[in-house]
Design goal:
Length: 358
């Protein structure tokens, strides 16, 4: 009887080993699949992230060949995706992914201005990424609220960067506070705005950060870690006290009509999230996501999500902001209509829980 039990144990172990070896052999024999990672130009944060992904996929011996393709900018990426979709569907070109945010997803998928000629209704969110957090900063301690910007010179993004400047700010200051025309907006771009404030030419600078966010049980978004764009870093290190001006979360909620405006939310930046944030402060967030076409095969999507989830620590070695990927890859804050239809299945197969309420 003991010999029989021992025999069955050996057979069971042999079967398990055969399955494991067969799986490894199948993985080793898997034909590589190329996926294009569209990025902005060399030197930008999105380019750095794309290069990091390419390297991490290689080191992980993934059968996905993640290949960086720099472009002149976001408009080019959108046009590329729109014009080449038929070739992708025909198998003549590789599937593509790109970094984006929920801020613009209504505009790109529905073909709102300025994307009337290049709508991307089939582009969906595939995983979460570091988010874009906006605050205004000043050296003037008497500017305590955003209502105090009336009559002040405020440096912001250039006119061509409408999503980080005009379209992001106007609803809050026009519909929300009613002072849009009273603010002396200076469309200088971040670098020139920084120089102007250092030289006392303007009163307030629009500061942008990348941050790690999470959603609490009551639906509130919080940020526990963030890092500034270079201009804000230079202002913070100028030797002068830089003050951050809080948003009003209720004004954010009532100011943005997502049927026509950008999609942005209030976020509570926790004390210590960045040096100089010496108390909890409300900011405005554009939640970071990666996008792909809804026809991306399940196995390809699943492998991409797996690497993004399991190799977050490796990504963080390339750039500090890449340490801000949310712990869960599901793109919270993205309406279900804009989430990839195969994502939940991919996460279920990987054993990653779907966040509550999604």
């Amino acid at each position: 009887m003991k010999q029989q039990k021992r025999y069955f144990r050996l057979v069971f172990v042999a079967i398990i080993l055969q399955i494991a070896l067969g799986a490894n052999f199948a993985l080793a024999e898997r034909e590589p699949v190329e996926v294009i990672n569209l990025s902005t130009p060399f030197g930008t944060s999105i380019y750095s992230g794309a290069v990091a992904f390419e390297s991490v996929f290689k080191k992980a011996n993934s059968w996905i060949n993640m290949k960086v393709q720099p472009t002149p900018g976001a408009m080019y990426m959108i046009r590329y995706t729109h014009e080449n979709r038929d070739k992708v569907l025909a198998g003549q070109m590789s599937q593509a992914v790109c970094a984006s945010s929920v801020l613009t997803i209504g505009h790109t998928t529905e073909g709102r201005f300025p994307f009337q000629k290049f709508p991307l209704p089939h582009t969906k969110a595939i995983f979460s990424s570091p988010s874009f957090i906006a605050l205004f900063s000043t050296f003037d301690p008497n500017i305590k609220t955003l209502k105090d910007l009336a009559g002040k010179k405020v440096g912001t993004s250039g006119k061509a960067q409408i999503f980080s400047g005009l379209l992001a700010n106007q609803p809050y200051f026009h519909k929300g506070l009613g002072i849009w025309k009273q603010v002396n907006w200076q469309y200088l771009g971040a670098a020139n705005s920084k120089d102007a404030m250092l030289n006392n030419k303007i009163d307030v600078h629009q500061s942008n950060f990348r941050g790690k966010i999470a959603r609490q049980a009551d639906g509130t978004y919080i940020c526990t870690k963030m890092a500034p764009a270079t201009p804000t870093l230079q202002l913070a290190n100028s030797g002068r006290k830089l003050h951050y001006i809080p948003y009003d979360p209720e004004v954010i909620k009532k100011s943005y009509d997502f049927k026509k405006d950008v999609r942005t939310y209030p976020i509570l930046v926790k004390k210590g999230a960045y040096p100089g944030i010496d108390k909890d402060i409300w900011a405005r967030v554009a939640i970071g996501i990666y996008l792909a076409d809804e026809t991306m095969p399940l196995d390809v999507l699943q492998e991409i999500v797996r690497i993004r989830h399991e190799k977050r620590g490796e990504l963080a070695k390339y750039h500090s902001t890449l340490g801000f990927f949310p712990d869960n890859p599901y793109p919270i804050g993205v309406p279900k209509a804009f989430v990839h239809p195969k994502l939940k299945q991919a996460m279920t197969n990987l054993g990653i829980p779907i966040p509550a309420g999604e």
